Amino acid sequence: MKLNIKDTFNSELPADPILENARRQVEDACYSFVTPKKTKKPEMLHIAPDMLSAIGLSKEEAASKDFLNVFTGNAVLPNTNPYAMCYGGHQFGNWAGQLGDGRAINLAEVVHHDKRWALQLKGAGETPYSRTADGLAVLRSSIREYLCSEAMHYLGVPTTRALSLALTGDQVLRDVLYDGHPAYEKGAVVCRVAPTFIRFGSFEILASRGDKETLEILVNYTLKHFYSHLGAPSKKTYLQFFKEVVARSMEMVVHWQRVGFVHGVMNTDNMSILGLTIDYGPYGWLEGYDHGWTPNTTDRQHKRYRFGQQSDIVLWNLYQLANVMYFLIDESAGLEAILEQYKGDYEQAYLRMMRSKIGMYTAGKNDALLIKDLEALLQLTETDMTLFFRNLSAFDESQPSKGLEVIKDAFYDSSALTTEISKRWDQWFLGYASRLKDETLPKVARVKEMNAVNPKYVLRNYMAQLAIDAADKGDNSLLDELFNLLKKPYDEQPKNNKWFAKRPEWARNKVGCSMLSCSS
Ligand code: AMP
Ligand code: MG
Fold first, then answer.
1. Which residues line ligand 1 at a C-beta cut-off of 6 Å?
2. Is 3 part of a structural domain of the chain?
3. pLDDT tens sequence across 214-240
4. What is the mean pLDDT of residues 308-337?
């Protein structure tokens, strides 16, 4: 197996040369050397073909024993030094101190076609950052990360990617609901891929310790390799850097709102410095459109990370990063000015995105009220987000009274649609129809545009659970089916119409489908 390895991370950043897995505080360092744990009986379950070719490997190489061993942690690539990264983080609004890759191990960085990719195993054993946990991952959470990160990529959402999913052959003990009923589950390893896995928390930990020297090295490293267009390090460049991280993070969250993705654990250690969606834990997809929804049972009480609050949380997280930058540049005005722009910019970007979802492309129109009314209506009765927006493109503005008929499949309980609510919908469709008449884009083109922002297929929570249940019994066909389905989420796929449907009733309150904990 031939990979073009370039370990810039290893060679440029201060390392903690630990080789055994003692749990401890790691100071003056950005990472620690570790060796992945050997597993009992590794078995490859799935490989993402596009990611494979992106890193320069062939299908033949992927079928080799070498590939299996390297991507399950059973062999280390020649001339590489796997490492776990040190970071801290604010979790659920509080500073949590040092965290770090507790169960992620970076294997190496490869360069192919001028693109750099860091390869990282998730679930390959303990690291100095594992604290009291085991550094392992189970099949259920690994399938969820593997399928969802690739699905997000094909939806056009900035995200970390996945290369492979394998069983380790070991059993892992987990208490899924944290209710004192631990059980053994199949251990698994995902190889994740991204230009870098550096997080907000990677910088926060250094600032929290007053370690300006290492912080500057890490910021300069990040600039050099991922923001090189901003130029040589200086106060001005640091501000530009922060500004771009703000812009990228905002773009990411606008995409989440567009497709109905709820991250579930937006702690600052789960915020990529590249504005990528990272750390797929108890995430979920909106079924009924609901700003108050969160899939994360750990967050059930306060719902900090609910759908409607994701952009505010991104801003909150950016404030934490701004504090780090302040420590570095010792000036607050520039940082504050950037942060103050966030709300207004987000509102604009959100409005633009929502306008595109309902087919409004003519410049200079203000559709804020129409959209606000729609969002209120969608939440009056349980209305499936994906079905609603996808079907909306079939609305005919010359027949506004048929509006409800066009989108009726999206209602979970049509009996909840009282005369009064129906009337409100009819009114909305009247306003929508009259507004559409001002649109200059021909109808065919409008439908095409709408279908390019409103996915037909998303990884509904129950779909992932079905793939998990089958794979747990040794049947990987559904995993493969969903993987392929979600590669073309905007296409009509008549053969796959069964996945363009509301969540079945059995999945409403099922663990794994609507309720997820951080246990993984
Ligand atoms: P998360 O909430 O998944 O982002 O994880 C928060 C912290 O806990 C990170 O430092 C993880 O590396 C660590 N962590 C989560 N699960 C495990 C595990 N099974 N073993 C070791 N560390 C873990
Ligand atoms: Mg995390």
1. 99-103, 129-130, 133-136, 265, 269-270, 279, 281, 518
2. no
3. 999 999 999 999 999 999 999 999 999
4. 98
